[in-house]
């Protein structure tokens, strides 16, 4: 499948969210719902679908149905102090687990007036999954070092991020002296690209490049998690 070079979004994609920010209520959204569907929902669905179809050439297990990849624009406000009902961005994930799998490494991304945000790695591992990742790093330190020091990875994403534990099990402490990232509770990385990227005809190509750059490290984490 040949890479698609086309513009998916108009400037009103950005303008809609700029206007939504100070008018984040159901009345305003209902008044602008048709605009939302034409400017945001349908173009984003098309983009996600074509991106998934394209990337599935290289990773056939990727979920390809947009409804299983795109997150709702409605915020979950049931237990939140912030009662604004809508997100001021759209988001989706490219992975073999889709949006229901909160742990599987993939490419998560958000499009907003602040720009294009792209994330990879592992953000919400459970206790046993965290332990598996730490042992994977401890037992494969040379490979891990090579992946996180890869020039393309450092250029695109910089470094591994995440909160850290103060203490570790004794059997991991020696390895953590060599590789401090073993202290992490999360293992994610990110990049932020300017607004113009969203409106560019190169958007799909840019997303493809980021996907390829993060894939080796995502694969490393998948092995740890048994995917």
Please describe the topology of this protein.
Blueprint: H1 11-20, H2 26-31, H3 33-55, E1 90-94, E2 107-112, E3 115-122, H4 127-139, H5 141-148, H6 151-156, H7 170-178, E4 187-193, H8 195-199, H9 203-225
Helix pairs in contact: 3-9, 4-9
Key features?
227 residues, alpha+beta, four-stranded antiparallel beta sheet, 4 strands, globular
Describe the 3D structure.
The protein is of the alpha+beta class and 227 residues long. It has nine helices and four strands; from the N terminus they run H-H-H-E-E-E-H-H-H-H-E-H-H. Strands 1-2-3-4 form a four-stranded antiparallel sheet. A hairpin with a 2-residue loop joins strand 2 (107-112) and strand 3 (115-122). Helix 3 crosses helix 9 (203-225) and helix 4 crosses helix 9. The protein is globular and about 60 Å long. The mean pLDDT is 95.
